[in-house]
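Hi all, long-time lurker, first post. I run a small reading group and we've been trying to get comfortable going from sequence to structure in the token notation. Rather than ask abstract questions, I figured I'd post a concrete chain and ask someone more experienced to write out its structure so we can walk through it together at our next meeting. Sequence below, copied exactly:
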Amino acid sequence: MEKEKNTKKNLLYFPLGTVGRDAVYCLINSYLLTFVLFTRSLTGAQIAAITGIMIAARVFDALNDPIMGNIIERTRSRFGKFKPWLVAGGLSTSVVIYLMFNVRLEGWAFVCFFGAMYFAFSITYTMSDISYWGMIPALGSDADARNQFTSRATLFAGIGATLASILIPLFTAGSGAIGGNTAVAYGRIALIVAILAPLFILFTVLGVREHREPAGAERKREKFSLKQVFRTIARNDQLVWAAVIFLIQQVGNGLVIGGISSTYIYFTFGYDGGLYSLFTTVGMSATAFLMIFYPAISRRMHRKKLMGIMSVIAVCGYVLMLTPLILSGAGMVGFWLMVAGYMLSNFGQYCFYLIMMISIMNTVEYNEYKFGVREEGIIASLRPFITKMASALIVALTSVTYLIFGVTDYTNRISELEQQCAQSLISEEQKLVEISGVIFGAEGQAGVSGGQSAGLLVAMTVLPCALMLISYFLYRKKYRLDEEEYDRICGELEKGVKRK
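-- Answer (accepted) --
Happy to help. Here is the structure in token form:
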């Protein structure tokens, strides 16, 4: 009875903790590069430096994740091993994001400050992220309970990310920009997010009770070493395959919201943040169904079969997203068909994400079965590790796409107009008129060409679809911890059996 009561309480308070954290992640992961491009006039060398900083920081962050996971695994305090890092990471992250979006530097001074803040964010957010998701195996090993914790946490993470995805473009681009220009708008939004994120973390810190290892258990562990961290990962073959599959899928899925889609919509349908808000709102709406009903679906359908069905749905969605290219001149009809396509593709991809989250977590028991230790912190660190490696590749692919199709030629001109408006040199109305001329062409200047827009659309549809299919086929062939095998391993562990 007490265990059931505790589980219900955890199911309420644990998911609430991630609402603000994922708004932070959405702000940085989906809008930071857009913020830079549309608020700063940068040379090619400076843009290349910022791209290099983002890639290097995310690779560093990814490599740091297993180390942080090991540190958390060996933390012993009266508050447990997860909560101290959750609090420290949440508070320090808020300070960093406020500074990042409210500085008024330009040129190389901005590039240097950006680099310092971006690396700082990599460290602080890792503390919070790994400690949060690392709690799931400590909240219950029952398959159904773990599905509920995972799906509810992703539901509330989705709420935070979706609200950010809707509100950020709505209030930062076009006529709805807070303060009349993009730079001021991002600064104020960053302040709001920086305040809300730690407040939501308090729900998890104060309301959740996790399973803690008995006193003295730490004496059985090896001393911290990088060798041990990577040995734990490398020897767990199912964890390695899950990581590779997840990385491929996340790269493809992230290309849509990594900056390319917002730029494509601004260049094709107009510089209006409301359009991109509609794209993300409708596109993400169908995932709410999975967030709520995934545990019930997973009880009735095996993960590999479900993944196959969702892959077909996602492929149909990507084909539909190509409508503006296939039906040239379709106007807003093409926009709405593209939005419907994104809803279908995102529905399939999000189910893939849920399945891979659980597949990674299930390797905790597999690790205990084979080697006698759970190593929850280290294994949980693989999810953010993969996400950050994927984001580094997304930044690289996005930047290459921008360079190939000459995107920065237009964003530099738009950012100059944004700065003139911020300095009251031109009115907001004049700014919007001139930005429209930059995009669609005006007397004496050419706008964005059809080929440039088409290239952006192909980059955010065809490539993600191909990567998703590759990851699906690898999952079917290489991941062996299906429902029956996982239940068998848990049964053996309950009997005290360890594989030799």
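A couple of things your group might point at:
The longest helix spans residues 237-269.
The mean pLDDT is 83.
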